[in-house]
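Help! Submission page says 'invalid entity' but I think these are all valid:
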Amino acid sequence: EAGVAQSPRYKIIEKRQSVAFWCNPISGHATLYWYQQILGQGPKLLIQFQNNGVVDDSQLPKDRFSAERLKGVDSTLKIQPAKLEDSAVYLCASSSLTSGGYYEQYFGPGTRLTVT
Amino acid sequence: QKEVEQDPGPLSVPEGAIVSLNCTYSNSAFQYFMWYRQYSRKGPELLMYTYSSGNKEDGRFTAQVDKSSKYISLFIRDSQPSDSATYLCAMRGDYKLSFGAGTTVTVRA
């Protein structure tokens, strides 16, 4: 079974520029998550999708961040304009319901963003 | 106060030692408790999860949850150099995971 795919793996941009990240979840997973992981910290949930719909985007800085999941499969996360504090690894995860009744999340390798 | 507290370490142990990791939390609504392992430049991968209080063992790994103390632990027996990674605790009440900061572990050969 193929894992969660993300691209690009690395990105360096200057502040005030725009950037977009792409995620392809595991086939059949209805739930997709975007996390931000700042160096030395645990992942922080930015947005959660259930199929096409947004379940939780309470921690997404909506003035600069946007995300979409068209057709309930792939997803893109965009930052416009970027700030220095956006330097982080952006992780995409997808999940399915296990036999134990738990939604196990599978993470992609992440996109490491450096804003200079 | 953070919802989940985890000592970032780093922790360095000799091969074969027992690694002991722990987290404390403040949200009584947490019911699912997870441990993730994250290798450098990789995404986290689920090691173990426990529902409510109790112990769970999987090979060299043992997870313990004490809801009365709001304290969870992970023990790694007979540690190997391949266990060198960052270990993240995570917890969930309804649907959202809350992560600790992660503890970086190095097992010296």
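Support: the input was valid. A stray whitespace character was the problem, and the output above is from the cleaned input. Residues 27 and 101 of chain B are 16 Å apart (CA to CA).
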